[in-house]
């Protein structure tokens, strides 16, 4: 069972990853196969584990101000800024459609 | 004026070519049946429609710091000054849960009759937007902190305040989640300016089942939720400051048929606009379907100036959020009196029962008490609680006057409230204090002034200036004469003056 081009395109659009070439797709393929081994285990009546931290205590913090006030440091990371604001494009720039992209997936 | 809604709409008899007629924008032109339940196709010959309205409400938690970081929560601060490294999603930072936010969510869940999940989980919801630096929002999609509650709300039929209808909407769940930053769109320079002060602030998302059928019901439900949140203190719920945000999910269908396609309506900035937006969207969908069109499963924005909903940009197509468990947070465990562990640090324990015992009187309880203690009408109790500080003012006046509460309420609702409304004043800003009003009412009660004179005194009191009612009465010589002989003399003078007639 291979991953279809539709799924790959969908993933590239959602996650902005670039599978780049046959090797990249093959790696994804192998990762899925590896994870599929989980299906070989009988999990009837077993509660799913959603985190390796499930037996840990979730630490609760007191509601005191301890951070913030570091605008200058944060803005050093900004490619572009206007006064104290980060600058971003007017809206999301969607990935061009598959036919219009220069991609291996074509 | 809005009318009570029975759940079924008839097609408005005003037709407009292509889309709802302008007259419908901002105004409900369809009369509702107040009986509830489907109405058989009658005079118009058209099949009736059943509108279905569900709400997703985001309430900003009233806390000093954010949900997962120690940066301050404050409205209107210099841009990006209340942002920690975690809020900016710098690598190497981790979320640390704020205990106060958990307590706020538990309080709210209990107040809304929910089951509190003793174990709840955090998830990541992925999407790209400039004001979401991490590229995902930490939320509770699989197992939220509270589920299966209910909210009772009331509103008046016929706007006469004489017939109150009480309905209930089911609460599907309440979840804790992060707020995003703010985007300011600069269309002239084709760019967006991002302020992350709000990024990471704690939110309670309250999901209401689609049990409502019109704008009036939605508005009444949100108003009651707002009052509850403010009473609990878990959120200040001021819509104008973005502390309470409401999205409406609207669809229509014929009775007996499956639910129709729903649209999501966003950008609703006040409770009044909520009612308008919902009613407009219902009407728009009915007209669309009746003229042979279809309703798209889309997100629309409410334009308050035009009173219409319009398709929203950047929201085309269905989103795939790729939910996954938040790997950096263990499950959130809450305790009650029974399950309380013996040796645990107090600070690390949130005890549901402890919180339950300390819940303040909810609005519905306060109203019932006002009616019981003072003998006022139920609709009066609604008005008292609807205005910030008014119930307290009323009770203070009652304490300081001999006039019966049933009479006092008239002065509070008719004279005081209408004056404040006319001059856009809050109860706190009232030129007449509860002490002065009580004083004034005492003069009336003791029959020291007539009702006509009372109006003059009141007018004088409104001007402020600190004069007591008694001082005004003496100044203007408005005292009622009680002395029998003096009255006889005056009458005699009048009769003498008209002897000739």
Overview of this structure, please?
The complex is a heterodimer of chains A (106) and B (501). Chain A is an alpha+beta fold and 106 residues long. Chain A is 29% helix and 8% strand. Chain A has a two-stranded antiparallel ribbon. Chain A is flat and about 55 Å long. The model of chain A has no long low-confidence stretch (mean pLDDT 89). The chains are: A alpha+beta (106), B alpha+beta (501). Chains A and B meet through helix 1, strand 1, helix 3 and strand 3 of A and strand 2, helix 1, strand 9, strand 10 and strand 17 of B.
Give the strand content of chain B: 15-25%
Hey, which two chains have the biggest interface? A-B, 39 and 60 residues
Topology pattern of chain B, helix = H, strand = E: EEHEEEEEEEEEHEEHEEEEHHHHHHHHH
The amount of helix of chain B comes to 25-40%
Hey, roughly how much beta strand do the residues of chain A contain?
Answer: 5-15%
Distance between the termini of chain B: 54 Å
Strand order across the largest sheet of chain B: 3-7-8-11-1-12-13-14-15
Number of DSSP strand runs of chain A: 3
Sketch the major β-sheet of chain A.
2 strands, antiparallel
Poorly predicted residue ranges of chain A = none
**Spatial order of strands in the largest sheet of chain A:** 2-3
Query: Biggest sheet of chain B, in brief?
Result: 9 strands, mixed
Total count of strands of chain B: 17
Q: What is this structure's SSE topology?
A:
The complex is a heterodimer of chains A (106) and B (501).
Chain A: H1 5-15, H2 22-36, E1 60-61, H3 71-75, E2 81-82, E3 85-88
Antiparallel strand pairs in A: 2-3
Chain B: E1 50-60, E2 97-98, H1 99-111, E3 115-116, E4 119-120, E5 123-126, E6 136-139, E7 146-157, E8 163-178, E9 182-186, E10 191-195, E11 202-212, H2 215-232, E12 244-253, E13 263-268, H3 271-290, E14 299-303, E15 308-311, E16 324-325, E17 332-333, H4 352-357, H5 363-374, H6 378-386, H7 390-400, H8 405-422, H9 434-445, H10 451-462, H11 469-476, H12 484-497
Parallel strand pairs in B: 13-14
Antiparallel strand pairs in B: 1-11, 1-12, 3-7, 4-17, 5-6, 5-16, 7-8, 8-11, 9-10, 12-13, 14-15
Helix pairs in contact in B: 2-3, 5-6, 7-8, 7-9
């Amino acid at each position: 069972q291979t991953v279809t081009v539709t799924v790959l395109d969908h993933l590239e659009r959602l996650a902005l990853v670039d599978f780049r070439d046959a090797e990249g797709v093959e790696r994804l393929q192998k990762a899925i196969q590896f994870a599929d081994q989980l299906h070989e285990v009988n999990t009837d009546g077993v509660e799913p584990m959603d985190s390796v931290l499930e037996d840990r205590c979730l630490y609760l913090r007191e509601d005191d101000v301890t951070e913030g006030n570091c605008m200058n440091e944060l803005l050093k990371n900004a490619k572009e800024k206007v006064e104290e604001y980060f600058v971003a494009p007017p809206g999301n720039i969607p990935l061009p459609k598959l036919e219009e992209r220069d991609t291996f997936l074509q | 004026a809005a009318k009570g809604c029975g759940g079924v709409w008839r097609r408005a008899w005003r037709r407009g070519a292509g889309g709802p007629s302008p007259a419908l924008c901002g105004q409900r032109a369809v009369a509702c049946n107040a009986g509830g339940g489907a109405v058989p196709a009658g005079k118009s010959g058209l099949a009736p429609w059943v509108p279905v309205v569900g709400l997703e409400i985001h309430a900003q938690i009233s806390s000093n710091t954010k949900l997962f970081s120690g940066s301050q929560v404050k409205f209107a601060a210099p841009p990006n000054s209340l942002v920690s490294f975690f809020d900016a999603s710098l690598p190497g930072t981790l979320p640390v849960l704020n205990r106060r936010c958990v307590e706020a969510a538990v309080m709210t869940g209990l107040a809304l009759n929910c089951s509190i999940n003793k174990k709840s989980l955090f998830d990541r919801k992925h999407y790209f937007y400039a004001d979401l630096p991490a590229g995902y929002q930490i939320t509770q999609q699989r197992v939220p902190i509270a589920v299966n509650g209910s909210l009772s709300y009331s509103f008046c039929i016929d706007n006469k305040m004489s017939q109150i209808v009480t309905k209930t909407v089911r609460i599907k769940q309440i979840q804790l989640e992060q707020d995003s930053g703010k985007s300011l769109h600069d269309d002239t320079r084709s760019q967006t300016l991002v302020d992350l002060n709000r990024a990471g602030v704690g939110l309670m998302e309250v999901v209401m089942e689609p049990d409502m059928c019109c704008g009036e019901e939605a508005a009444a439900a949100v108003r009651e939720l707002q009052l509850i949140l403010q009473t609990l203190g878990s959120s200040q719920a001021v819509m104008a400051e973005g502390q309470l945000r409401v999205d409406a999910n609207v669809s229509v269908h014929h009775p007996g048929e499956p639910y129709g396609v729903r649209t999501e309506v966003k950008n609703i900035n006040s409770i009044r606009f909520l009612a308008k937006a919902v009613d407009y969207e219902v009407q728009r969908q009915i007209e669309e379907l009746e003229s042979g069109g279809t309703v798209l499963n889309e997100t629309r924005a409410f334009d308050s100036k035009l009173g219409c909903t319009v398709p929203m940009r950047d929201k085309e197509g269905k989103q795939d959020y790729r939910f996954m468990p938040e790997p950096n947070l263990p499950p959130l465990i809450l305790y009650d009196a029974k399950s309380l562990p013996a040796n645990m640090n107090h600070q690390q324990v949130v005890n549901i029962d402890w919180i339950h015992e300390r819940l303040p009187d909810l609005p519905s309880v306060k109203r019932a008490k006002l009616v019981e203690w003072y003998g006022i009408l139920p609709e009066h109790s609604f008005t008292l609680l609807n205005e910030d500080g008014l119930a307290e003012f009323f009770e203070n006046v009652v304490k300081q006057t001999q006039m019966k509460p049933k009479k006092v309420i008239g002065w509070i609702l008719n004279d005081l409230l209408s004056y404040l409304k006319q001059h856009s004043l809050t109860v706190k800003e009232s030129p007449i204090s509860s002490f002065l009003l009580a004083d004034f009412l005492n003069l009336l009660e003791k029959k020291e002034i007539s009702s006509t004179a009372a109006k003059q005194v009141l007018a004088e009191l409104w001007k402020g200036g600190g004069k007591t009612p008694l001082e005004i009465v003496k100044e203007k010589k408005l005292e009622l004469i009680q002395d029998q002989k003096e009255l006889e003399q005056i009458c005699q003078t009048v009769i003498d003056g008209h002897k000739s007639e």
